[in-house]
Amino acid sequence: MDAMREPLEAALDELAPGDGDALARVTATRDAARWLEEVGLVEAVERARAGGSTWAQIGAALGVTGTTATTRFGGTPEEREARAQQSRDRAAQRNRVASEAIGATPRDDLPGISVAEAAEKLDVQLGTFRRRIQVARERNSDAFRAAIKLVQLSPKREVMRVVDLEAAARI
């Protein structure tokens, strides 16, 4: 990687000089990294395939299996974009579920309030409140049963919602 530093720094200096605006350099670095990932790497793989390299060889050069390389870089540009969009959609859905579960995104369809919201209203550190809830859950305490409702968001994801703030204060 050190051998790459000098030519990459020179290329970045063309886009945004290192002794200039520091934020412009950050943006130029991000844009260059994106281009390398989204365009440069695809073109390099296409050149390797056109030159006779196998998917197994390309995968080895990338540090992945040949099958993984084929899945990511095989097919037409339209097929690659469709797979990339599916991957982005799955990631966005996972992020939405996680965000909703921790209370970063309000959910009107869930009972009560998130554990994070309750901790804030009770003026308790979130980590401390989560530990107290966990202990109360393990003990199956009355306060836990009164304060918390467990909601299944999916077969693999359960979220705790605070439905009684006064009971939650006793946890």
Care to give the gist of this entry?
The protein is mostly helical.
Task: Describe this protein's structure.
The model has no long low-confidence stretch (mean pLDDT about 85). The protein has 9 helices and 3 strands, in the order αααααβαααββα. The longest helix has 29 residues, at about 20-50. The chain is mainly alpha-helical and about 170 residues long. The protein has helices at about 1-15, 20-50, 55-60, 65-75, 75-100, 115-120, 125-140, 140-145, 165-170, and strands at about 115, 150-155, 155-160. The relative contact order is 0.06. A 3-stranded antiparallel β-sheet has the order 1-3-2.
Features:
mainly alpha; 171 residues; three-stranded antiparallel sheet; elongated; 9 helices; 9% strand
Number of helices: 9
- Major sheet strand order: 1-3-2
Q: How would you sum up the major sheet?
A: 3 strands, antiparallel
The tally of strands reads 3
Low-confidence stretches: none
In round numbers, the mean pLDDT is 87
Q: Work out the radius of gyration.
A: 25 Å
Q: Secondary-structure element order, as H and E?
A: HHHHHEHHHEEH
Q: What percentage of amino acids are in beta strands?
A: 5-15%
Large-scale geometry: elongated
Structural class of the secondary elements?
mainly alpha
Helix content: 55-70%
CA(first)-CA(last) distance? 52 Å
